[in-house]
Write a structure and sequence with these properties.
- Among the domains are: 135 residues, Cytochrome Bc1 Complex, Chain D, domain 2; 137 residues, Cytochrome c-like domain (Cytochrome Bc1 Complex, Chain D, domain 2, Orthogonal Bundle), CATH 1.10.760.
- The protein contains 16 helices and 2 strands.
- Helix 4 packs across helix 7 and helix 4 crosses helix 8.
- It has a two-stranded antiparallel sheet with strand order 1-2.
- It starts with a helix and ends in a 33-residue tail after the last helix.
- It is mainly alpha-helical.
- The structure holds heme C (HEC) (2 copies).
- One heme C binds next to helix 14 and helix 16.
Length: 420
Amino acid sequence: MMALNQHPQGLTSVLWGMIFFMTIALAQAKDVTHGEFTSNEQKVILSHGPWPMPWSGDPTNKSSGNESAIDLGERLFFDKKMSLKANLACSSCHIPEYNWTDGLKRGVGQAEVPRNTSSMMNLRYQNWFALDGAADSLWSQNIRPMLDSKELASTAAHVARYVRNDPDLACRYENSLNQKAQSQDEASVLVGVGKVIAAFIESLVTDLSPFDAYRNALARSDQSAADLYPKAARRGLKVFLGKGECENCHSGPLFTNGEFKNIGSARLNDGTVPADTGRFDGIHKVLGSQFNLASQYNDDASRRSVERLTQLKVQSHHKGQFKVPSLRNVGYTGPYMHHGELSNLEQVMAFYSATDVNLLRSNTASVVGKPLLLSRAEQDDLVAFLRSLDMERAPSWRGKEYADPPCNLKTVTAPNGYVK
Ligand code: HEC
Ligand code: HEC
């Protein structure tokens, strides 16, 4: 200390030296924690996992998690005999190789459906179904396409007759639901079929993505694993969490808050499809449905699941709201938005760039005329980030022989909480 006091010059160089080494140490610490993200941003990154989320079955569907039901649901999903003309199955529009959509602007069955086809991935984690939330359970959602004249164009009578009269299917039905299709009325068989198909769809869960690998590496402070995550995806993630305000809605492990929002996507409609009020009509439909959770078909003895329905009230601000979609596997599900007007993610980012920031903050009442304005580089980085939410390869289908192995009646014990 004395020596330093006597030589101010020496003191300065020692101080500079200390600053130099501290800077290096700080830079290293920054690198370890991926300093491009603040500690708050890192918390948000961690909140997008772990994946897959825990899941314990659907209490409203007694066949949920039942292996016979999953197997029967899979058979029926691919079975064209479910349609009256025996020409269409669910899988005609929900094609596994297209991440369970069809690659079209709008689904085409017996005629064009006015909406973009949804994916079947990760639906077990959702409470509301269809882009307008017109169904409050996965099994009741499955009934609409069976009856819709534009989709399978089937009838309850046809579905019931088909399942009752085919001995193999009737046997599988009994194993799945502990009830004979022959002793149920048509509507109940229709619901039963919706439930076994739901059990199958619940088994469809996306694999880990490059983003999950990064998120998990951060969680265990494994820098060399975290470094594998591409720079462009990281820059895009930064925009996603910050300037882009994407996190307001695409949050959590599913990258959706499960809500319905109006982001002004109605302006994309060029008049080729009728105007769509989204959630506004959806609430009318779900409240009026004979298959909603308030009906006798809900298997939840506690009736707790009915609360989400009874709390609903149609209000004018529901007009133009659509379900916030999950962004997992989003690279495989184009075209985008409820009418499928945007053919790729680049166009979606250009749309967001022109979108009023107040809409992105769910403040539909006051559109301030201030678009988000993302630079070309920010849009490209966001696309790189979104692609890191994709599984490495699109899902593929293994195929299943129709009646193989033949069904034997057995006592059914539903395993608790089926997990893929
Ligand atoms: C003609 C094409 C077509 C056929 C056939 C079809 N779907 Fe769909 N599916 C769609 C479209 C389009 C949507 C979006 C509908 C909407 O939001 O109103 C959709 C939505 C869904 C959803 C909601 C997904 C979500 O994210 O909420 C489920 C579940 C579903 N379909 C299951 C089925 C089942 C089960 C079958 C067979 C019984 C089937 N679909 C047959 C086109 C089709
Ligand atoms: C206010 C809520 C909200 C915010 C903020 C938001 N989104 Fe969305 N996002 C939605 C809704 C709702 C849709 C569906 C709109 C429709 O179907 O017309 C959607 C659709 C999408 C789609 C198309 C998915 C598909 O399958 O069609 C992508 C990709 C997307 N958003 C990414 C982003 C990105 C990136 C940001 C940030 C720049 C962002 N979103 C900000 C609510 C939001």
